[in-house]
Design a protein that fits this description.
LexA/Signal_pep-like_sf; 9-stranded mixed sheet; 11 strands; two-stranded antiparallel ribbon; mainly beta; DNA binding; 43% strand; Umud Fragment, subunit A
Length: 140
């Protein structure tokens, strides 16, 4: 009987306790998909995240979509740090044509592309005329 209880305990999923979470202010939503409209009327909102929360982030964004799976999930919160330089291969928060994105930056022969990690979603070629505004690098 005791042996059965010990075996059953191995099948128990432990859920995080409420004290393992904290409320933070998200700056907005990043699209992991076709684009999330971002303008001056976008209001910050409160989200609950698991601890620990990094102390040195500039923005927290909630993800909307599936184009960055399996690494980043829909509704996950990512933390973003402003940087002066951006490199090929970094995961960035970016604004292009009024829409905010979470994408991998690819720069080949001076041409930038916002890359989806999920092959079901297309990559987005950055227009040389309009460019892309990089908000920062994702580090969580």
């Amino acid at each position: 009987m005791l042996n059965n209880q010990q075996n059953n305990n191995r099948n128990v999923i432990k859920f995080p306790k409420d004290d393992d979470t904290i409320e933070i202010t998200a700056s907005g939503v990043l699209s992991a998909g076709v684009g999330e409209f971002l303008d001056d009327s976008t209001k910050p909102f409160t989200v609950t995240v698991h601890k620990p929360v990094p102390s040195n982030y500039d923005y927290a964004f909630q993800i909307n979509g599936h184009s960055m799976e399996p690494v980043y999930q829909d509704k996950q919160v990512v933390f973003v740090k402003k940087e002066d330089d951006y490199r090929d291969g970094q995961i960035i928060a970016a604004v292009m044509d009024g829409c905010a994105y979470l994408k991998k930056l690819s720069v080949i022969d001076g041409e930038a592309t916002l890359v989806s990690l999920n092959p079901k979603y297309p990559n987005i070629k950055v227009d040389k005329e309009t460019g892309v505004k990089v908000l920062g690098v994702v580090f969580s």
